[in-house]
């Protein structure tokens, strides 16, 4: 009976009174009225033959969870509500129980102002529904309080963009959803598991996933619909039957203009907080150049002083190892390493995301030096002398803004070789709608809250420490920033010379990293050494050699999506 209650409310309704649904989330302060111009924050977006609208108000249909004590392990399913006349739903929404209600689904209508490329309508009703999964495993009875997942069966030449959920065995109305003509859709992929039913019901396998466009980044045309997908085969995820929308309007009409970008940064620009014991602080790029940064060329012993604007740096090409930048080779070396936070500013790259339905504002911070790492093994900490250090460090965080409303939707926190998106409901807000971004001591990785983040095994307490803490060492990115690139605006933004430098911002120095690690391993009990060594071997290779990073434009997320 306990298993039954996990997926179906008890018939007397007792469970409904105990379990609470997620509360809706909103930003701490209202969104301001943005400067006028173009299609930004107009509520709807034209993407060719379709006009789409973002719906954030929902009607709860059904939820799946074990008990009030473990409700965070479940998921809640909703259908969009208050859909304006003329728009049609494309599918239902799902999210975890342990998060505030903060999501969207798109609804669509045909765009009468766009010349169609086909005689077929852009939207059509499904022909029927296929029951994909149900929590009602009894074939002899009908239970009106269980979950039923339905996949629309599209007409030929059309595709379904989402599932529908009911709390009873009757099929949804064919009027409730629309399928989209194939040429107006793009491929999707599953990317985040929300709930795995099989862990509770081995006989009823079903995994529910969030979806995202397969092709993403600055050039991607896929638009997330906000719907979910499910897989009833425990051997893998079948994504062959669910798609996303495609933006066929190359004008990217909903992207913000330059005035609107400034307004967004001034309203949402986070406070970048460095550790109170940080030695290697940021600076502006011009301060670094002005204080002795030197350009070296392969096979040439004497370096060249870099002009304050970087105009004598080699432009374009690729990172072929022919050039690199280094600290001044004089008594300024140590002071330049420590940076100059008073001059520091964020270098901003603005680009379309998810087919132009969102704007990504990537904010890059420059530090003249990245300090060595500290290894944690249980309760013991081992500061290293070399591993992890290198000349120059480029780190960033990215604000993802909804082009429907101008609302900050999430922030990406770059963390060494990867990173993580955090929904706005999980951010720490300092002033107004401006979040805090905490920079880790020595390594400058970005995190949403103060604390110790371990790169390695959190479970075993073994790995590289990333310590963050509140301090007065801050950079206010809402005022101290420079927009350095926004390709979709054409010539409106002039890129600085140094941004075109594609080689390394630091020399490559080879040394034996194993000697430092072996000292740590030799101090450990024999039964721990093998486990710790395996974790060390799984850490990114960049920790084990001193190599200057490439600049922002050489990173794969400059054109592509963030790594998540």
Automatic annotation (TrEMBL):
InterPro entries according to UniProt: Vps62
Domain of life: Eukaryota
A Pfam family matched in the record: Vps62
Protein name, UniProt field: Vacuolar protein sorting-associated protein 62
Source organism of this protein record: Ensete ventricosum
